[in-house]
Structures
1.
Amino acid sequence: MDLITTRVGFVAVLLFQFCSLPSANLVFQVHHTFAGSKRPLTQFKAHDSGRHRRILSAVDLPLGGDGSPTSAALYFTKIQIGTPPKDYHVQVDTGSDLLWINCAGCEKCPKKSDLGISLALYNPEASSSAKTVNCDQDICTSTLSDPSNDCKAGMYCSYAVKYGDGSSTAGYFVRDNVQLDRVSGNLQTTFINGSIAFGCGSQQSGELGSSQQALDGILGFGQANSSMLSQLASANKVKKIFSHCLDGSQGGGIFAIGEVVQPTVQTTPMIPEAHYNVELKDIEVGGEVLQLPTDIFDVGEKRGTIIDSGTTLTYLPDLVYKQVIEKIDAAQPTIKSHIVEQQFTCYKYSGNVDEGFPIIKFHFENSLTLKVYPHQYFFEVQDDDWCVGFQDSDLQSQGGKEITLLGDLVLSDKLVTYDLEKKTIGWVEYNCSSSIKVKDEESGKQYMMGAHNLSPAGRHATTSTGILFFILAFVISLY
Ligand SMILES: *[C@@H]1O[C@H](CO)[C@@H](O)[C@H](O)[C@H]1NC(C)=O
Ligand SMILES: *[C@@H]1O[C@H](CO)[C@@H](O)[C@H](O)[C@H]1NC(C)=O
Ligand SMILES: *[C@@H]1O[C@H](CO)[C@@H](O)[C@H](O)[C@H]1NC(C)=O
């Protein structure tokens, strides 16, 4: 998801009678949404605090969901939080920085989900490891875009986040234990345990309150210090590297924290920006390079192209969008396109879309190419009715900047690696139902890590139009 705004502030409001809590730790549990495999109950002694040893585990985050705008339209994972640990299903989102979970007592939190998972509210009072986070603590002050003087002793650290689709969440920070699956052998995991601060969501609005794609929260994989990845990395538990491989046809896939040694990916530099931005050079449709102004994808002034696993569709500047659609149109001169839900260009087509429509190639700095087949940019809304998963970002920008953003659909069926240490993003076409090899930094050993699909019934059948979901989850700005 692309976050529009994040606000961190201070609240004196005691949403929960935290003061009466003994010092409690909240534990995040990570569950396999995909596989439902049993984890060995071996307890991993993660912390050698005496020597501050770097453990740097590879972590397996089980994936569920899929990228189709007509079914789940999102990918999620299962984590375990608290003592005793409880399962929470959260959307994985490279477009935002914060982990937050719907909390007990929350207003307008969804009660049920059409994703086939049961929802859970996190209750800090029910976790013996939960702790409050006050506004003068580092996690709060470093997340603030504009640290003010409003913080007074004993006040909680509050936050508010607004995503690109207009939905929002607000609440306050808590600290608790999160439990994840450390890769400990070929297709084997044990627990890794870490203490992290995260958002306890008390108010949701927009799509986040609907039951259709409802989850317990969002796990932001952004670069900010507030992200779970940054917190685990600063506790020397993991390297700041993660990868995803979203299976576009089966749903589920692979989500790993740590170094992937197989397959190897070709990379492009990450542009220093709030999101994961890279430099798009040009676009080729069916072998023809689009004729565009040279500065259309310029990187200065907050441009560049956002890579966002939390957004379903791809957003292109008006001029680019029109040319892409024109070229797609030209491939089938006898079929007249129609518009669905005022925004999607669709075609009645009974053949194999890969044979009837052009391949689109996005070319990036350092000669990295993202090759997108027609079945990856089209989604079927009804039998033989195919819609293009691209949007004109001019129509979404509400007077703001025209963004270029690549979402789930075009990122699927590739292993995409975000290396925050080397400041690169890379990918390679890959079978996301197969396995990858990750490195355990402690032993130097390489282990196979398999795909998961936490979605109970696999991918849902295509639904009729009128229920197209799409998620635009990136934070637009801080306020
Ligand atoms: C984020 O963390 C790093 C390393 O701990 C630190 O150097 C940096 O100042 C922090 N950034 C912010 C904005 O607090
Ligand atoms: C997680 O770590 C804490 C502190 O190190 C420990 O007390 C707790 O038992 C661990 N939880 C699990 C489930 O391993
Ligand atoms: C992808 O890998 C899975 C598991 O190894 C295998 O069953 C499947 O046939 C592969 N798909 C393709 C297209 O090669």
Note: The pocket of 2-acetamido-2-deoxy-beta-D-glucopyranose (ligand 2) is lined by residues 43, 47, 85, 177, 179, 191, 193 (CB under 6 Å).
2.
Amino acid sequence: MQSVASRLEAVAGSLPQHVSLVAVSKFHPAEAIRQAYDAGQRIFAESRVQEIVAKIPQLPADIRWHFIGHLQTNKVRALVGTRRIDLIESVDSARLLDLIDRAAADEGIVQKVLIQLHVAKEETKFGLTPDEALEFFTSGRWHTLRATHICGLMGMASNTDDRARVAADFESIAETGRRIAAACPDIRGFDILSMGMSHDYMAAIEAGSTHVRIGTAIFGSR
Ligand SMILES: *Cc1c(COP(=O)(O)O)cnc(C)c1O
């Protein structure tokens, strides 16, 4: 069996310079994360609040943690309160965004987030549709945020072998990002496009992804 370090090296080596690798470590022990860390990886992502809260103190302080799972409103304070989450990628409602903003303001921090888009047909039901996202930004509601920085968009393609469909899903996410940027010329630092997983990240990069979220290809199956 290949080591975490050698698989990490193979994945990292396959990425263009401008694409950041987010290593998805959910369901894998701190020991596996440590192996990837020792091989040079610094950005890790988890999908459950309990799990990330338990792992953070066991691992080095210069890890940049991303949260990528569905965030229940009653867990917002536990997550933001760690003050260690570099990016919450999975903001899937305006209400969740408001709660994150309030928690971050109370902590005296600025929380960076991505808005999760829903374009895949048969996959997760979480996320704003492209039209809902555009409406959220054109309404100017994001101006009321005091302690949250929306850095871009996250999304997933349909889980299918149909390459044209996957490419179209990624293109739809990228196009929504461009439309938001055009509709909101005063938006700042809105430049992250987080899309692509182990099985489809090359297609995501072709569509303009800046961050790929890769678990299985680095850590093995969960
Ligand atoms: C689990 C997960 C990933 C990683 O998926 P792999 O197929 O293991 O690479 C990426 N993004 C999200 C949102 C996930 O939940």
Note: Residues 74 and 99 are 9 Å apart (CA to CA).
3.
Amino acid sequence: MVTGVMKCLSCGYETPIDQHTILCPKCGGLLEIIIEPPKDFSLSKLKGRGVWRYKDLIPGYYKSIISINEGNTPLIKSANINKQLYFKFEGLNPTGSFKDRGMTVAVSSAVSLNYKTVIAASTGNTAASAAAYAARAGIKSFIVLPKGKVALGKLAQSVLYGAIILEVDGSFDVAMEAVMRLYRDLKIVYPLNSFNPWRLEGQKTIAFEIMEDIGVPENVIVPVGNAGNIYAIWKGFNELLKIGIIDKVPRMIGVQAEGASPIANAIIKGKNEPDFIENPDTVATAIRIGRPVNWQKAMKAIKESKGTAIVVSDSEILEAQKTLARKEGIGAEPASAAALAGYFKAINYGIIDKDEKTVLILTGHSLKDPESMAKADTKRILVNPLHIEKIIVGEINGFNS
Ligand SMILES: *Cc1c(COP(=O)(O)O)cnc(C)c1O
Ligand SMILES: [Zn+2]
């Protein structure tokens, strides 16, 4: 049994780890789960694969585990961009994003606490994941989406898994606020957003897997939206440091899109708090967030790891998405490609040396957002089947352009 405390980021209130607790019982603020490093923990004793391989470091009591074999994603070494670069391809999770790592823990928690209904606000991936895990658990899911702002693949997943879809006029931030208010007023619905710190206990396993694959890299680059994941990954490394398995944590580098960069702006300007953005906008819909609920946690992870933040434009994101596909054969959605755009910028700015071992977290699969993939340029030629040979020979010899 993993022990420790839950500590409020707003008022400092501390209480022993309790699975019923999601927000601060005193002020409603966000809580950090700080585990006591288990004395008998040993890597060689771990069994199985995926998130639950690390159950010795995941607090909570689980009467049943709702799993679809999430985690255990490949860490792919770059073949053509930089030999010191690695891609943690979270797009290969069961629903196509890292959200599944958090969802297996949070939905197992909901079921263990006898909840019959779950809810999540989402830019799309949390919804798809919540819908799938709720379906597997045999419970009802409600998802709250910003109408017209969810990538087609993600929306279609939520439909297929049978979630009840509530669409709001307004941004993700409006949807998120509605879910937080609902949870505070009506405790019969279990919330699956990342203000729920139990979700991050699943997501921290990204760090454990990276460490088991290549040890501790110099840098980990993470696209930042609601800002839970960058903290979760830092938390994972930090726990390994406290246990004594590693002797340093990587620099955590957050990347935000120009039209939705409150945290990156604050870090770059050296401010302690972000200025929130009312109408966030970017092609990277997964990080199209103006009021990141976990901003305190993200800024802590960046500062304590001596990391930084980078802002990238939409055109840099789409260019990086294409480069990743065409140089490495890896299809990631725009938010994930922001990590590569940020890597290129970090090298240009001298923030990262190209000889430093660096891991990019590719948070979601390209199939999530077919419309963004189809924006890439390529030749499409309407052919008479009888002329295919001539056209191909012409292409190979460069006659057609
Ligand atoms: C959720 C998500 C993010 C952002 O993660 P946060 O924890 O909200 O910062 C980035 N990319 C993809 C594909 C996502 O689904
Ligand atoms: Zn508090």
Note: The longest strand covers residues 140-146.
